[in-house]
TrEMBL record:
Keywords: Apoptosis, Membrane, Transmembrane, Transmembrane helix. GO terms for molecular function: BH domain binding. Coiled coil: none annotated. This is Putative apoptosis regulator protein of the bcl-2 family. Residues 83-188 form the Bcl-2 Bcl-2 homology region 1-3 domain. It comes from the Eukaryota. The keyword Metal-binding does not apply.
């Protein structure tokens, strides 16, 4: 029997490495916390929709949870498609890992979530193990995928009011374990740059170098073709 724990499994499947973005976005700790909360709410909404569980009642609960969060439209708008896309890919690659999450890590029969604080506790247990050695964008995305899986469990167990605690719990993890790292990486936009690195601007000197190199290659090819052509004609 394997000694690998569920939290170790979450760590092992997200081996994406860090790549420092060439652009360091100016951001603060409070920025990444507020934006992370927005991203969590959006991710949970998308995950419930993918699972066919999103309805008007749940949507209203999610909106009320985000009501007092300062808007960060640009950051969330640019980051969420990347976060959601990569999270969905994780779910597709490891469906058993990000489904029935509470059953995998809870000691309660059938993973029953008995009280609102239990969902936050389970998330914190996984997060502490997930980030105990290092932090990578892959692990950050895995955290959101785990939160999405727990959200599905909450709704299927008809604990709709637990969704607010789940979002708050994820925000606490971001504040306690990830905020300093996120600020260093340029905030949540660093994820966008990690996946889609900005194009490096080429200077005038760079363009001149490329142009001269291209012309030189063309010249060499023309000389080579003339040489081959003259040798071919000399045979007749």
């Amino acid at each position: 029997m394997s000694s690998e724990t569920p939290t170790n499994k979450f760590t092992n499947v997200v081996g994406w490495t860090n790549r420092r973005s060439p652009i360091h976005h100016l951001t603060t700790t409070q920025d990444v916390i507020n934006q992370g909360k927005c991203l969590c709410g959006e991710y949970i909404r998308a995950r419930l929709k993918r699972s066919g569980l999103l309805n008007r009642k749940i949507l209203q609960r999610l909106r009320s949870t985000m009501e007092f969060v300062p808007p960060s439209c640009v950051v969330v708008r640019e980051t969420f498609p990347v976060l959601n896309g990569m999270g969905e890919e994780l779910e597709r690659m490891h469906p058993r890992l990000y489904t029935n999450v509470s059953r995998q890590i809870s000691l309660e029969p059938w993973g029953e979530l008995t009280e609102p604080d239990s969902v936050c506790y389970l998330l914190h247990v996984v997060a502490k193990d997930l980030f105990k050695t290092d932090i990578t964008w892959g692990k950050v995305i895995s955290l959101f995928a785990i939160a999405g899986g727990l959200a599905v469990d909450c709704v299927r167990q008809e604990h709709y009011d637990y969704l607010q605690q789940l979002i708050e719990g994820t925000t606490d993890v971001i504040e306690e374990d990830l905020s300093a790292w996120l600020v260093e990486k340029g905030g949540w936009l660093g994820l966008h740059d990690h996946v889609h690195p900005p194009q490096t601007e080429i200077t005038f000197l760079g363009w001149m170098t490329i142009t001269i190199s291209t012309l030189f290659v063309i010249y060499l090819i023309s000389v080579l073709l003339k040489y081959l052509g003259s040798n071919y004609l000399s045979k007749f």
